[in-house]
Amino acid sequence: MEEPTLNAHNKDEFPPAHSAEHILNQTMVRTFGCARSRINHIERKKSKCNYDLDFCPTDEQIRAVEAKVNEIIAKNLPIETKFVSRNELPPSIDISRLPEDASETLRLVYIGDYDVCPCLGNHVKSTAEIGSFRITSTSYNDGIFRIVFRVSPANEQ
């Protein structure tokens, strides 16, 4: 099957960190009932995600999020992509933040049965390739909870 033509992706994220970001987003959604990060910056040395929350999570909650992300990474889940038309999207997929000119065909990234979302970025092939995930700092200001994290890929440990 020929891959469909999609919109160009304007970022060049570090695949292990980008894959970890997907797991972090789903963990935040499941833990706090918030939306996926509204602003993020994913790089090799450090990455950050901002979440809209009406409270600041406790240190215990932050450690639990970090532990859950590492638990999912350790499961060695496959990371796969599927191309679907907009009318074939699973009902759980939120496309409200896609650009207006997003193509009719979307690329969904699946992390095992833990997460699925539209994404054009680069990812590792399985969660085990992410290595370890560590939250290095957090901050809370005016309803925005920021998580700064690092990954240490398995092949670099």
Summarize the structure.
The protein has about 160 residues and is α+β, with helices and mostly antiparallel strands.
Topology readout:
Elements: H1 15-32, E1 39-41, E2 47-52, H2 59-74, E3 79-85, E4 105-111, E5 115-118, E6 132-141, E7 144-152
Antiparallel strand pairs: 1-2, 2-7, 3-4, 4-5, 6-7
Provide an overview of this structure:
The structure is a single chain. With 157 residues, this protein is an alpha+beta fold. The protein has one domain: Threonyl-trna Synthetase, Chain A, domain 2 (Threonyl-tRNA Synthetase, Chain A, domain 2). It is 22% helix and 29% strand. The chain is built from two helices and seven strands. The chain has helices at 15-32, 59-74; strands spanning 39-41, 47-52, 79-85, 105-111, 115-118, 132-141, 144-152. The protein has a four-stranded antiparallel beta sheet. Strands 3-4-5 form a three-stranded antiparallel beta sheet, with helices on one face. Helix 1 packs across helix 2 (59-74). The N and C termini lie far apart (37 Å). Mean pLDDT is 90; it is low at 5-10.
Class per helix and strand makeup: alpha+beta
CATH-assigned homologous superfamily: Threonyl-trna Synthetase, Chain A, domain 2
The CATH topology turns out to be Threonyl-tRNA Synthetase, Chain A, domain 2
| Share of helix, binned | 10-25%
Number of domains: 1
Structural shape: globular
Named at the architecture level, the CATH assignment is 2-Layer Sandwich
Order of H and E elements: HEEHEEEEE
Number of alpha- plus pi-helical segments: 2
**Using DSSP, what is the number of strands?**
7
